[in-house]
């Protein structure tokens, strides 16, 4: 019997791919079957391609799927051999009909994937066995996208906790934003005027260091604005410092009375005008922190409507709408029905209702009497708004709706301006005065009020106007006791943080910790404390009352689960410094689930002698108390 000889194709190159092995005569059997190993090579090619592409494009759900497939192929080769012996010849026949250049591309690709296999295995082992060492590499090349977009348990030790700061370009300047705590304390404001920030942050972090010695505590974030720029050197950081002050006093008071303590982490989103550039990055850090810290239960802030809207939108985009947010002062109507979001102030619609009533019932009759106008004569009022700002837009719309109901003969002169742009304010004033405006409603912020008054004063002199032109506005003109330098017109604004008793425990504590900063108007039985400090105190206490409620329901002293805590937060009710705080967040049929129920408000004013007065108060029962003798001059 003749013996079959084993031969190889002498024309095949060294280390030839099976494609190059040609069968000889019928009595010759090659030592390697045609197509042997093709299925394995193709599977390797697919899984390694997915691994590399997904790794470098941050599509990490596919990265780990490809790793699992790769390990399954490598680990169970013997099992797959029974299948591969049938698929290999089929693949060989398929590829043998392809053009030579395709065959050569495939030939070299198989060698590339053979070389890539050790790299994939080494990288995977390095990731799993040395997570801390890999973390810095991972963070440098792939800005934490895996940790932000996907909660992957296997990488829990690699993902950072979000704490840290970075500089972001905002216009022509850079602002330092991010998250700091007692272990990473550094002021965001790098100017020489950062003493106040250092003081309040030091108080918070000292309290934190005592808190973390306990086994049980809850962590809350205070998201506010602690940066300065040339176009916002005071407003944002003033609001931010008051937010921190109120939150600290709430933390201090609660920890003094409870076993389960509260820890505060500080989040800075820059300035009011920089939020379009900063919020996205900072909210990604918030998400990282929320996933890393099991004690985290919610965020206090942000303070303004635009920043709040951006923050909520970013959290939703990152599938983190379950993080509860309580803002101390964001009032835009667009935020009234947002699941998981609450605020301790009512919407612009509510404050506009009160201001509309005050305007129609008291200011208009006084103006008509002074100007000797008939009751049906057209009444010209300039209404300023910024169409790009959600607070300004909704406040403008709501006031006009209410005012035109109260004063049918109202003739609004609509003027568009841009927040922070003095030139647009001046242009609007020029046009409004040319059309005979006798009053101004300014849907804006305190920082733009002084430029508005300066421009108004200059234009009145130029045009020979001698009459007082009152300025009305919303809670954006909140710091009424900050108008002591205003020299020209009377200013009226709605305020949600009520004037308080000068002898109240809250005022005494605030003065003891931060100094006597409250204004006590001469002859008045109340003090005007910074509204943002009061509102931040109430916003923080909203979380703390939810904590107490959840502990009571569960009848234990352990930190409630996220779901239990969020459930308790939906229906918190308590009497805050600013008035009643009560929510119905669990009512899916409500269009105001984010708003406090039956919240009252005040109309405050500053006269031309720089004295502050309470013009009127509006209670939860819709009652009105009017306190002035002369509405136009703000005289009580």
From TrEMBL:
Entry keyword annotation includes Ubl conjugation: no
SUPFAM superfamilies: Periplasmic binding protein-like I
InterPro entries documented for this protein: BCAA_transport, Peripla_BP_I
Keywords, sorted A to Z: Membrane, Transmembrane, Transmembrane helix
UniProt KW Transmembrane helix keyword: yes
Annotated transmembrane regions: 42-60, 112-129
Protein name: Uncharacterized protein
Organism from which the protein derives: Dictyobacter alpinus
């Amino acid at each position: 019997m003749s013996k079959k000889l084993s031969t190889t194709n002498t024309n095949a190159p060294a280390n030839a791919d099976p494609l190059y092995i040609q069968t000889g005569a019928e009595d010759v059997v090659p030592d390697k079957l045609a197509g042997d190993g093709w299925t394995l090579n193709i599977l390797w090619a697919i899984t390694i391609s997915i691994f590399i592409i997904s790794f470098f494009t941050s599509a990490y759900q596919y990265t780990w799927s490809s790793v699992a497939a790769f390990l399954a192929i490598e680990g169970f080769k013997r099992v797959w051999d029974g299948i591969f012996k049938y698929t290999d010849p089929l693949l060989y026949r398929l590829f043998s009909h392809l053009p030579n250049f395709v065959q050569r591309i495939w030939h070299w690709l198989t060698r590339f994937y053979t070389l890539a296999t050790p790299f994939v295995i080494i990288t995977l082992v390095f990731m799993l066995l040395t997570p801390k060492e890999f973390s810095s590499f991972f963070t440098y090349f792939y800005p934490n996208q895996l940790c932000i977009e996907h909660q992957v348990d296997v990488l829990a030790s690699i993902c950072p906790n979000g704490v840290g700061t970075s500089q972001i370009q905002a216009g022509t300047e850079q602002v330092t934003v991010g998250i700091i705590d007692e272990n990473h304390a550094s002021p965001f404001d790098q100017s020489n005027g950062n003493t106040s920030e250092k003081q309040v942050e030091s108080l918070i972090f000292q309290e934190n260091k005592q808190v973390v010695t306990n086994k049980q505590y809850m962590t809350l974030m205070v998201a506010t604005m602690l940066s300065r720029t040339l176009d916002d050197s005071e407003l944002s950081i003033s609001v931010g410092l008051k937010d921190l002050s109120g939150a600290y006093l709430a933390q201090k008071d609660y920890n003094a009375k409870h076993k389960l303590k509260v820890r505060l982490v500080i989040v800075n989103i820059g300035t009011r005008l920089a939020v379009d550039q900063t919020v996205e990055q900072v909210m990604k850090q918030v998400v990282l922190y929320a996933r890393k810290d099991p004690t985290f239960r919610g965020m206090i802030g942000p303070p303004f409507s635009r920043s709040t809207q951006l923050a909520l939108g970013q959290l939703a985009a990152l599938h983190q709408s379950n993080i509860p947010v309580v803002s101390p002062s964001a009032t835009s109507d667009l935020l009234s029905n947002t699941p998981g979001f609450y605020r301790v102030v009512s919407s612009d619609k509510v404050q506009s209702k009160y201001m509309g009533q005050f305007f129609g019932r008291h200011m208009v009759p006084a103006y008509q009497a002074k100007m000797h106008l008939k009751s049906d004569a057209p009444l010209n009022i300039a209404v300023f708004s910024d169409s790009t700002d959600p607070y300004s837009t909704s406040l403008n719309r709501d006031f006009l709706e209410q005012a035109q109901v109260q004063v049918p003969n109202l003739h609004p002169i609509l003027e568009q301006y841009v927040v922070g742009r003095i030139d647009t304010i001046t242009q609007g004033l020029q046009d409004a005065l040319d059309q005979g405006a006798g009053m101004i409603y300014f849907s804006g912020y305190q920082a733009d009020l002084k430029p508005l008054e300066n421009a108004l004063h200059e234009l009145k002199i130029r045009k020979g106007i001698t009459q007082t032109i009152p300025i009305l506005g919303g809670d954006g003109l909140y710091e009424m006791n900050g108008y002591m330098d205003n020299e020209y017109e009377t200013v009226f604004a709605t305020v949600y943080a009520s004037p308080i008793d000068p002898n109240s425990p809250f005022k005494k504590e605030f003065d003891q910790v931060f100094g006597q900063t409250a204004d006590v108007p001469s002859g008045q039985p109340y003090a005007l404390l910074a509204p943002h400090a009061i509102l931040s105190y109430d916003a923080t206490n909203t979380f703390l009352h939810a904590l107490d409620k959840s502990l009571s329901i569960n009848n234990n002293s352990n930190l409630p689960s996220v779901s239990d805590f969020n459930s308790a937060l939906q229906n918190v009710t308590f009497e805050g410094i600013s008035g009643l705080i009560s929510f119905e967040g669990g009512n899916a049929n409500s269009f105001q689930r984010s708003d406090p129920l039956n919240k009252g408000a005040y109309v405050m004013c500053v006269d031309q002698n720089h004295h502050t007065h309470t013009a009127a108060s509006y209670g939860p029962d819709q009652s009105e108390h009017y306190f002035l003798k002369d509405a136009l001059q703000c005289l009580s």
